[in-house]
Amino acid sequence: MEKKPSLFTVLSRSPWWLSVLLTASIFIAVRFFLPTLIAASAAFPFGVISIYAAWRQLRVPGEAAVTKKLDELRSLSWAEFAVRLEGAFRRDGYEVTRLEGDAADFELRKKGQLTLASCKRWKVAQTGIAPLRALLAEKEARGARDCLYVAAGEFSPNANELALASGIRLLSGTDLARMFRGKP
Asked: Are the beta carbons of 73 and 81 closer than 8 angstroms?
């Protein structure tokens, strides 16, 4: 049986102004019948949700910023991109080791857990299933817990299905732009 999302979950994923509107509506409706303090208390949780939703939404780069950042990343050479990606992983708390081989580019360690990261075809417009299969084979061979594939382009439907079925994390689009936010 599918679990229904809570009101908090729905509002935190909705535009922030929707929560502000709901907060004001609850305050006004309750204020007609009860004192101001009680009306404010009833509306307060929704005000907190609106602040949380606004904070989350302000951290997500817009479509134009994502496109610009992905274009900047695609203009880099492999060596430049690898250096920046390695730095981004280090900022996220990983110990990073570069790998030589066809399946994975980086070995990432955090809290004793091994993750393999690959970005072999990071500039292509659409990544297919072949590099993901190679990454999965390398994950099994090295006994890694997780694996991650980085691409500045899209993933094919088959690649998305394989990633979902096998637990490969795909890093592209908005997530990739956010990872390099503020970096030239």
From this structure: yes
Spatial separation of the C-alpha atoms in residues 95 and 71, rounded to whole Å: 28
Tell me how far apart the alpha carbons of residues 90 and 80 are, in angstroms, rounded to a whole number. Answer: 16
Q: In the beta sheet, which residues pair with residue 109? A: 95, 114
The better pLDDT of the pair 58, 151 is held by 151
Delimit the domains of the chain by residue range: 7-58, 63-179
- The rounded distance, in Å, linking the Cα atoms of 129 and 170 is 12
How much is the pTM? 0.67
Residue 181 is predicted with a pLDDT of: 67
Alpha carbons 14 and 26: distance in angstroms, whole number: 17
The CATH fold of domain 63-179: Trna Endonuclease; Chain: A, domain 1 (3.40.1350)
User: If you compute the radius of gyration of the chain from its CA atoms, what whole number of angstroms results?
Assistant: 22
Q: What is the DSSP string of 13-47?
A: HS-HHHHHHHHHHHHHHHHTTS-HHHHHHHHHHHH
